[in-house]
Amino acid sequence: MSSCAVAVAIFAVWPTSNPSGGQQPTAQGPLRRTADGRPDLNGIWQTIGTANWDLEGHEARPSTVLALGAVGAVPPGLGVVEGGKIPYQPWAAARKQENTKNWLALDPEVKCFLPGVPRATYLPYPFQIFQSPGRLLIVYGYSYARREINMVPRGKAPVDFWMGWSDGRWDRDTLIVDVTSFNDQTWFDRAGNFHSDQLHVIERYTPITPYHIAYEATIEDPKVFTRPWKISMPLYRVVDRNAQLLEFKCVELTEELLYGDVVKKRK
């Protein structure tokens, strides 16, 4: 039987109850709630997609390290940017292109630097939310990254941070997190999309079933972009048996990359 005939046969018996392809979450019981009535976000979550390769829609392309072949290639993605394009100022669009060309040398992820917000959310690693009435803690599997989201505003941050300064509040069942006081050292993805130290991110976490959160992040940076812009994607609860957050200690895996001569002498 030809591959085309096989595809037709499979399609003929495929369930048609969800014409959208199975990606739209359906009703799966009431939301879990904490003792104070808020949606219960406690647990391990993860994204599925290609946002960390490129927030914008993109075709498959080879890795800049040709020896990696298909293993290092960039998979295609539909993009998560509302409207399709990030609204760069002209000078910033040119710098973004330079970042793309020099990805391997410049991307902070390669060096295991903290990923920043919102990138920490859609890295290909799970993260865990610990929720209490006064604050939330998000711990990421990547590089010891973590955030404290204070539900009581604390005022201006004392310094700038890799992961920003997060203050949260509830709007009905949506957790809104206002993140400020970033440094300018993080990227949004491996495509070289970047920001300045004027970055301001407003995140929205809206549970839509006990197992899915609709995540949105509105991004504003008057130094780099012509207007605010937004990304959105679903977060999926990890329900594997004995699920737990494992540490990806990438710092020690980059020592020779960053300090090659010193490490070799020490050995």
Radius of gyration: 20 Å
**Largest beta-sheet characterization:** 9 strands, mixed, barrel
Give the integer mean of the pLDDT values: 88
Q: Tell me how many strands there are.
A: 9
Q: What percent of residues are in strands? A: 15-25%
- Please work out how many helical segments DSSP would assign: 5
As laid out across the biggest beta sheet, the strand order is: 1-2-3-4-5-6-7-8-9
Overall 3D form: globular
How many separate domains make up the residues? 1
* Helix and strand element order: HEHHHEEEEEEEEH
Taking pLDDT < 50 over at least 5 consecutive residues as the criterion, the unreliable ranges are: 1-26
N-to-C terminal Cα separation, in Å? 59 Å
Structural class: alpha+beta
Q: How does this model look, in words?
A:
By secondary structure, the chain is an alpha+beta fold. It has one domain (31-266). Helix content is 16%, strand content 23%. The protein has 5 helices and 9 strands, in the order αβαααββββββββα. The protein is globular. The relative contact order is 0.17.
Keywords:
5 helices; 16% helix; disordered N terminus; 267 residues; 23% strand; alpha+beta; globular; 9-stranded mixed beta barrel
Please outline what is shown here.
This protein has 267 residues and is α+β, with helices and mostly antiparallel strands.
